[in-house]
Amino acid sequence: MKKIRITVMKIADYKDLREKYENPIEHACSMSLGQIFVSNGWVKPEGFCDSAWDTVSPFVMTLAHGGENIYDGWMKNPRSAMISCNDGFRPVSFLLETMEEDAE
Predict the structure, then answer these.
(1) pLDDT (0 to 100) of residue 104
(2) Which of 27, 47, 53, 103 is least surrounded, with the fewest CB atoms within 10 Å of its CB?
(3) Residue 84 pairs with which residues in a beta bridge?
(4) DSSP H or E segment with residue 100
(5) Residue 46 CB neighbours (<10 A)
(6) What is the pTM of this model?
(7) How far apart are CA 39 and CA 48, in angstroms?
């Protein structure tokens, strides 16, 4: 099974939606732009958001098992995917990339 690098590429914040619909919460997300996680297949990386993992894990599993060309050529790199978490108020976009065998 291949390791998958998960990089935080964008963090959005829809303040207008939060003000109108969200109950105030103390801490929603601790991701940082450029932050990198490495997954060993089905194992959620330490410190990775549970809700975000629920969204990205099927794609991580596909890539970890050698899957390529998700959604028929959607990505320029066939061994990658751009996936966003399902938080409608502050979505985070992640770049998932299959790591080479000799990479850390």
Answers:
(1) 47
(2) 27
(3) 93
(4) none
(5) 7
(6) 0.89
(7) 10
> How is 20-85 classified by DSSP, letter by letter?
HHPPP-S------TT-EEEEETTBPPTT--HHHHHHHHHHHHHHHTT--STTTT-SSSTTEEEEE-
* Span 5-18, pLDDT tens digits: 999 999 999 999 99
Phi-psi region of 69 (alpha: psi -120 to 50; beta: other; left: phi over 0): left
Partners of 3 in the β-ladder: 40
How many residues are recorded in the chain? 104
Starting at the earlier edge strand, list the strands of the sheet with 80-84: 36-40, 3-11, 92-98, 80-84
CA angle 47/80/48 to nearest 5° reads: 5
